[in-house]
Write a structure and sequence with these properties.
The chain contains twelve helices and eleven strands. It is globular and about 70 Å long. The strands form two sheets. Strands 6-7-8-3-9-10-11 form a seven-stranded mixed sheet, with helices on both faces. This is Peptide/nickel transport system ATP-binding protein. One of its GO terms (cellular component) is plasma membrane. Its main location: membrane.
Length: about 350
Amino acid sequence: MTTMTKTEDTPAPTGPEAFLSVRDLRVRFSTEDGIVKAVDGLSFDVERGKTLGIVGESGSGKSVTNLTVLGLHNRKTTEIDGEIVLDGQELTGASERELEKLRGNKVAMIFQDPLTALSPYYTVGRQLSEPFMKHRGASKKEAKARAIEMLDKVGIPQPALRFNDYPHQFSGGMRQRAMIAMALMCDPDLLIADEPTTALDVTVQAQILDLLKDLQQEFGSAIIFITHDLGVIANMADDLLVMYAGRAVERGSVREVLRAPQHPYTWGLLSSMPRLGGDTGESLVPIPGSPPSLLNPPTGCPFHPRCAFTDQVTGASCSGERPSLGAGRAAACHLTGEQKQTIFIDQIKPRLG
């Protein structure tokens, strides 16, 4: 990975010592059309045994951030700056060999689509066994026993028989369970789940979420859970990071952010969701416009072209000044705390019920 010159620091979150600490992360991709600013000054922490939820629309930088943690970008076309520290080890300048020792071992990822993440040419059992043999020096027999144990733990029926099946012989829910089993083979300290339930029906989705929570309690893993679904986050996460256009716009505990959101973008996300028990004829309130191009993102607050409250800001320019995200519970917005509270109580909360 190459690095860029640091131009601006994002205030660090405060709290207990983190297992994963990301500071002022910036990721740029070189394309034929120009430089894509995929992540722009992002900071967050993940504690041991806790789940950090990251939400935002497609293109907000969620997946790019976590692929960067794993070092899975093309080094020739990607520029990375900032700090990524995993259990005291700096990853930003780590070699490919050092990162290979971590992937699937200390940190593992559950991808959104297991059918494309799993190789169609090898049995599920082989794909589970190989990382265990590589990282733990286990024999084939030991790795097979471990794989069968993990398939059983994630709820695959007749795991000894299904060990020899290929991915196409599994249902969607079973493939996702197999991906979770693969990620947990080496008892990782950090598990990254990239929208792991998006393609599943609600029944299977609930089973997968319950499974992840049970396994976290058993193994004590830290989890980063990436999604666009705030309903899922409410059920899964301890802390929440809301991302927009490669930046964090709001941060806090799940309870704080969902009960009293402070950023207009978070208000928009919540207002656009159907309410459980709401009127069937109730119309949703979509966020106007589209996410910005990261080739040429807006100046100032990246959300200002879609924000309905820019006319209430005084003493600052939403289009000219980039609002900062303070430490701890915070929202990057030029509205005053009193204005945020008034708008939320008078206009947003009645929509949420």
